[in-house]
From TrEMBL:
It comes from the Bacteria. Pfam families: Peptidase_S41 (PF03572). Residues 1-19 form the signal peptide. This is Peptidase S41. SMART domains: TSPc. One of its GO terms (biological process) is proteolysis. GO terms for molecular function: serine-type peptidase activity. The keyword Ligase does not apply. Keywords: Signal. It comes from Taibaiella soli. The keyword Signal applies. Residues 372-564 form the Tail specific protease domain.
Length: 587
């Protein structure tokens, strides 16, 4: 279902974050014409105290609520970022909570009256995730007069007219975050902009993230926890790593960040080793190299178990870096962590001392490294080709059809049908990202009858924060000439997004076995987000579920037969998942 995956520039894993640009409007609305703070908030520092922390948390929640609910803000009558920057200095000087919250109430009153909407109270059908407003309506948190006014705005919110900051993407339903200023004039935003970054992202998730309920912690706690981190970030590296911590808090494989090269080099180092590794049987194992340079092929063998890197054990390194890796679940995070350009093999030094265990004996290898930034395109090209077969489809020994979707072309289906007509069975290797959209065209070929394979949840503009059931058309059709033979779909942690959606769609054929290990658990069309300092990220913007309502986010697709690689198999150069798939069809 997803058209593109997210790009984590640190890892060079896959995809392109610019595929869905942020939309802007011509400067005809008052919000667009208010450019007073487009180059910065002018707020250089913010004191963080226990009192201020609570007030700043409440302000962030109310600010976001009004951004998406108040008609004057929704219609573009106010540049809501600029209003925050005008209000914040006065708010920070409030003598006590009563004075602070009275300021919020006065600011609310200045936006103008909200009209009564008789139809707005009617309940929409198919709600599967209710709106959450953080602490705004908690008893005793805010003054009753303010809470009452906010409640009236909530209950009388209408989706009539175009919203200045948010829209639904046509024919999909995921959020389009519009008119968000990138504040790209300075890569290290001032204190006001850093706080805005947190407020902006937190409220986008609060009101438009379909998987808010499976994040793993109460989202309002994240706002409270990270306010000091963002305010106290003393340089661009601190700020961008705060953004990483924020984005990783939602545990979404699509929610990665394109870090600036200066940040990557400052935090992780610029030198890498041209070595490929993977976590197998709980150990970091060499599986090959991606550039036959710096004598790496002579120094390492497939199956070498890495024990230490520059004196630190692998366990220590995992503990240090795992929380910085994007991902919906641990298998995907471990894959990103062990990627050649990932933090395990980055450092500020051009020499690495890597301790390995080979045939039971320990050995330390001194390995030269190279500047990753100077070879970024070359690295990506080498990595992209590793493990790819010679063609998108072929007939394997034993008369078994094989499809590698990353190499497919849109018009390959006719030749595949002809070439595979008399094959004994079919393997679809989805340890990759499909190059063409397969669920329906391939579903018509593989399924003998039509059936539903998934359902979606999409956001509400009428009541932001709520999500509703959004049916997905069935795939397949009544087809007596369907490919009614054994099919094995191979998956692992590299099976992500459209690959997971494709697995769900094609696994509803009659004789399918899904084989492998837990997939990435990130499905649904992405929505692009930009934060101050021109930080680009994204989220899974549509919820994807099996027809019975069971989740795919964080969990991955349903596996019929679990098979994982072994160290012994790596040493022997075997593809144990492919072997298992061949055995199923051969029996």
């Amino acid at each position: 279902m997803l058209r593109t995956t997210a790009l984590f520039l640190l890892i060079l894993f896959a995809g392109n974050l610019s595929a869905q640009p942020i939309s802007y409007v011509k400067p005809t609305t008052p919000a667009a014409q208010d450019t007073a703070f487009n180059r910065g908030s002018g707020i250089k520092s913010i004191a963080v105290s226990k009192t201020n922390l609570k007030r700043l948390t409440n302000l962030g929640e109310v600010w976001g609520f009004l951004k998406y609910y108040h008609p004057a803000v929704c219609s573009g009558q106010f540049n809501w970022d600029a209003q925050l920057f005008r209000f914040l200095p006065r708010y920070l000087k409030a003598s006590d909570d009563a004075a602070a919250y009275k300021m919020i109430e006065n600011e609310l009153d200045s936006l103008g009256a909200v009209k009564l909407c008789k139809k707005c109270g009617e309940k929409e059908k198919g709600e599967i995730l209710q709106a959450d407003y953080g602490h705004i309506f908690d008893n005793g948190n805010l003054p009753n007069s303010l809470t009452t006014k906010l409640g009236f705005i909530r209950d009388n919110h209408s989706e009539e007219g175009e919203h200045y900051y948010i829209a639904k993407i046509k024919n999909v339903g995921n959020p389009e975050f519009k008119n968000e200023i990138a504040y790209d004039g300075d890569i290290y935003p001032d204190a006001g902009l850093r706080l805005l970054a947190l407020y902006r992202y937190w409220n986008m998730i609060q009101y438009f993230y379909p998987y808010r309920d499976v994040i793993g912690e109460k989202w309002s706690d994240v706002l409270l926890r990270l306010i000091p981190v963002f305010i106290n970030a003393k340089n661009v590296t601190d700020y961008e790593m705060a953004c990483v911590a924020l984005v990783n808090s939602i545990h979404d494989g699509h929610a990665s960040i394109g870090l600036k090269r200066v940040v990557v080099e400052n935090y992780f180092g610029k030198y890498i080793t041209p070595l490929r590794t993977s976590f197998i049987e709980g150990k970091l194992v060499v599986v090959g190299n991606f550039m036959d340079t710096l004598n790496v092929a002579a120094n390492f063998q497939k199956g070498d178990v890495i024990e230490k890197i520059d004196g630190m054990s692998v366990e220590q390194l995992v503990k240090k870096y795992l929380h910085l890796m994007p991902g919906s679940n641990q298998p995907y995070q471990y894959a990103v962590l062990s990627y050649p350009t990932g933090p395990l093999f980055r450092s500020a030094k051009p020499i690495a001392h890597i301790q390995i265990r080979r045939n039971g004996a320990l050995k330390t290898i001194t390995q030269r490294k190279f500047d990753a930034g100077n070879y970024s395109k070359t690295i990506f090209e080498h990595l992209r080709k590793i493990g790819q077969p010679d063609s998108a489809f072929q007939v394997l020994p034993g008369n078994i059809g094989y499809i590698y979707p990353a190499l497919l072309k849109q018009d390959d289906i006719d030749k595949i049908k002809q070439d595979f007509l008399n094959t004994k069975g079919l393997i679809i290797d989805l340890r990759c990202y499909p190059a063409t959209f397969m669920p329906f065209v391939y579903g018509q070929w593989l399924k003998c009858e039509s059936s539903v394979f998934a359902k979606a949840s999409t956001m509400s503009l009428r009541r932001p924060g709520s999500f509703y059931d959004d049916p997905i058309p069935p795939n397949g059709e009544h087809n007596p000439a369907c490919y009614n033979k054994k099919i094995v779909i191979i998956v692992n942690e590299k099976t992500m997004s459209q690959a997971e959606y494709t697995t769900m769609a094609l696994s509803t054929a009659a004789k399918v076995t899904v084989l492998g290990s837990q997939t990435a658990g990130a499905d649904g069309d992405i929505s692009a987000i930009v934060l101050p300092g021109d930080i680009k990220t994204a989220i899974s913007g549509v919820g994807i579920f099996y027809p019975d309502g069971s989740a795919t986010q964080r969990k991955g697709v349903k596996i019929d037969k679990e098979v994982k690689p072994t160290i012994k198999g790596v040493v022997a150069g075997r593809d144990e998942l492919l072997e298992a798939a061949l055995a199923i069809i051969g029996n």
